[in-house]
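Readers of this paper often ask what the protein records in our data store actually look like. This encoding replaces a full spatial description with a residue-level series of whole-number codes. For reference, a complete record is included directly beneath this paragraph.
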Amino acid sequence: MEYEFSVVMGLVDFIPVILFAISMVLMQRDLYNKMPKYAFACFAAGTINILIAGFVKALWKTLYAAGICDFQVLNTLFLPTQSLGFLLAGLGIILMLTNRKKAALAVAAPPVFSGSMVFIAMMVLGLGAICACLGILAAKLKKKGLIVVFVLCFIVYMGMGYLGSRDNSTAAANWLEQGVNTLGQILLLIGVGGLHKAGLRDYKL
């Protein structure tokens, strides 16, 4: 399959990766003293997976557009790596709020599946958990406006997932997907930044 990528498009694809990295650094700093070690391990491993997935996808697109190579394995790794990342990150933040160890066993040795539906389900569950838990934290901090931000963030992420499941070989489809992705990362950063400013780091659950 031929893709209508440009070098600029590939470089722009790194922007949401950077925005997500900023959000996760803030979250890890604010939640570190609230998470049991096993919960933080899940959360940190998940966010690292997500960052790696976004980076390799943008790198593949840039290399392809520059005519250097079509390193398809980078594109193939994107969905399973990102999906597992969201699931682990979502589990970590749930464990923080519930302070339960049993749920961690569910992903201690994840089975290998074929097909994309399992990965999509993992992504939806992980995203839902992250946005829901962040919304709960916003409610605890009496920042109701941030709850709306996290709801919108989840909706935009779902829209990005829908676009990603369609034909994205054309330039128009890729620019649309990148625009939606960037919007989702901006909303996440606004929400996470709002929690940080509201004193999440010093808040006792």
